[in-house]
Amino acid sequence: MKVFGSSGTRGVANIELTPSFALRVAAAAGTVWSADRVAVGRDTRTTGRMLADAAASGLASTGANVDRLGIIPTPGLQAYAEREGVPALMITASHNPPEYNGIKLIGDDGVELSRHQLERVEGTILGEKFDKISWDETGTTRVVDGAREAYVEELLDSVNREAIAEANLTVALDPGHGAGSLTSPDFFRELGCEVVTVNAQPDGFFPGRDPEPIPENLADLGRLVRAAEADIGIAHDGDADRAIFYDEKGRYIEGDATLAALAGAELTPEDATVSAVNVSQRLVDLTTEIGATLELTPVGSTNIITRIEELQRGDVHVPVAGEGNGGVLFPDYRLARDGAYTAAKFLELLTDSTASEVVKRFEGYENIRTKIHYDSDAEYDAMLYAAEQQAEKASAELSTIDGFRLDYGDAWVLVRPSGTEPLIRIYAEARGIHRAQELADGMYDALIAAKAEATADEKEEAAQ
Ligand code: MG
Fold this sequence. Notes:
6-stranded mixed beta sheet
């Protein structure tokens, strides 16, 4: 797909993601949906209102009446879409830096559009096949108040409120100036937690930290946990569909460890879970131990959601799924990533254990990441061929969903071309650094040798 990547469409606002582009995406979505009513929400970015205005115009031009919800987390807009039975359009660039913005499209069931549905919208944009209606059939716009409050109420009704309240938890919260600033503090207070915050004013310049919830951006949260002697630290990305945690000692918890801990609380042997092809060995070990099925997809939430829907159509129960970046889905609640809900599910695990105890069994896993640059198609092809050869030689289970992933049972290695740069990435993970290093080195050496050979061949050809 040209317009929509694995998680919607994104770019630098007013350069790549212009109001006229937002208008065309919205007009195409309005044409495909042909709904009477469509909701529009946005995160806190400074360009959000401009792009939401353009999107609202595009939708109205196809005859849709537009509910303007203002700033709201993506999962809050999804809750509104499902409750009201209307499709929705979210203006957000999620975890990207402040200058970015983007668009996510949500169906009237509250679920992000599938690849197939996005392809229809994309075809409408590229073919300029927008609905053309007469002036007296165009839509109108109304401001809807109270959608954030309704979302928080729904969250409160969906989690184990009594157990969390009884645990008397102190929560240190960093919504990162994003849309969660307007919902998560209230939510955790209503759950009976003591809440201390940092970066909790909605601000599209993101003065305290960038929207991506990675350790480099979260030093303040670690300090706040220690200063307030909190039981847990919680951070969101810009649209609050993700949650990342710090333990009671103010230490970052790997998103992969959180995912495995949450999955451990949900999965039974009959269940399946879905994650991306770079899934941690932690989840592999956990599902093996439980006897549940682990399904892998290409990286990106759209792929994970599409696979869950396929499994559900085959009557397979998928109680939990997601990636190690803090984006977790609990499909029995909603087929959507929700940072506040994910955090509450983690709080449910703290009723009789500390955060560090909850993730202790998932410690000791080591990741190696390396990359190899290439200058020509010949080098690229040679390296991918070498990776395939390595896979054939290895006593490992091979998956080719997105690059080459070799599963050795106790460890794995993945070779994957970058989607945006001339790089081949190599990932390896094992319990213990030596095993991970051994697998990464073996693959690296094979690819480097193949690249050198391809370069030599090219030089020889050029000399002839
Ligand atoms: Mg997000």
